[in-house]
What we know:
Structural class: mainly alpha
Strand order of the largest sheet: 1-2
Number of domains: 1
Bound molecules: fe (iii) ion
Radius of gyration: 24 Å
Strand content: under 5%
Number of strands: 2
Shape: globular
CATH superfamily: Ribonucleotide Reductase, subunit A
Distance between the termini: 85 Å
CATH class: Mainly Alpha
Helix content: 55-70%
Amino acid sequence: xxxxxxxxxxxxxxxxxxxxxxxxxxxxxxxxxxxxxxxxxxxxxxxxxxxxxxxxxxxxxxxxxxxxxxxxxxxxxxxxxxxxxxxxxxxxxxxxxxxxxxxxxxxxxxxxxxxxxxxxxxxxxxxxxxxxxxxxxxxxxxxxxxxxxxxxxxxxxxxxxxxxxxxxxxxxxxxxxxxxxxxxxxxxxxxxxxxxxxxxxxxxxxxxxxxxxxxxxxxxxxxxxxxxxxxxxxxxxxxxxxxxxxxxxxxxxxxxxxxxxxxxxxxxxxxxxxxxxxxxxxxxxxxxxxxxxxxxxxxxxxxxxxxxxxxxxxxxxxxxxxxxxxxxxxxxxxxxxxxxxxxxxxxxxxxxxxxxxxxxxxxxxxxxxxxxxxxxxxxxxxxxxxxxxxxxxxxxxxxxxxxxxxxxxxxxxxxxxxxxxxxxxxxxxxxxxxxxxxxxxxxxxxxxxxxxxxxxxxxxxxxxxxxxxxxxxxxxxxxxxxxxxxxxxxxxxxxxxx
Length: 498
Ligand code: FE
Ligand code: FE
């Protein structure tokens, strides 16, 4: 039987829309799920996705990718690799596999909403593949993570994480619920596909994949690449949507969606990829600093795409985002190391004398700021008072990011918490941008309790173990220093020599 060539049927098939007879268009596409901007059908007819694919081609390509990644995995003895890996690489793997799979799994539903409620057939088509992609991303990352379950308890979190109220998980859920799951299909597609996927996934999936290759972790590298090649396709749903918004006179709204989601997702990736790339990746295997990757992927490529579409850089770009690239993940790393017991992975410090030299070279001024705080931690470790490197009290959390409130320590001391009083409650923010997002729509955010708010509200069992019980982290399931303080040995020798 002869088969039609793709070009003979594709355009016809992908433009199939129909006019409902028994219900109104409004009933078929309720604005709160579909298009909250009331953009007319004539605009939707023009949706033109840049990346066109048929189901037949899709399945074939995906199959080849899967076969590639799984054969690299079975060719390399992963347990052996893991046992020999440096502590920092182990921290990175543990952090990645606990943090990522459940966000991928959530994305399945975000795309499914676009599939059902997108008004443009091309958008629905692309989003259908997006759902299938994200299903695969959840499965492959859970499977690759689970391989190490016999090696370390942290890999259990590939599945366990979303079912806990661990503070890191609360922070992630708050961000991605906002960006992916609680808005109409148009808004969440712009926020997810454009800001999140085009803006930031490169940092974890391309930057880290380059480091992984350099480190000899071929199976992790191959897995990340199969994921990112899907992102490169389905993230393109965002651009034609923005074009339609602009044509329909909705530039201001499109810009706001970008400004909100860019900041929210930046904070997440700064803590995840920033710490993984600048502190966990073994020094000799670092391809670039996190800052260099951000400058390339975000400040150059993403900004160029944004400008090409006719949108502006977010209003806070120069005053808040650019300074953040040099500072935020350094501050978060201090908190992550100190509060290691509250996280599933064994965090390394990543600040041995040689690593500090690298940090100072990549981030001039690091020694006078973040290095000063580490100086105190080092003193405590050298004098055998490691207990003093684990605070007994909970830190303050930002009511937007769910991450620790931080600033710049040392000689450039700059710590300023923003707050807002509303309906008898005080909300704290890590930056004016976080506060700005909250104030745009207080009804959306005000009911949420941060980790510390839950403690204060008495939602956690009493006593010193209460917070751990609340997070489902019995003794034995808590992070410890990833290299058992070996990182401080260089200072010990230095102190002895002096
Ligand atoms: Fe994904
Ligand atoms: Fe994706």
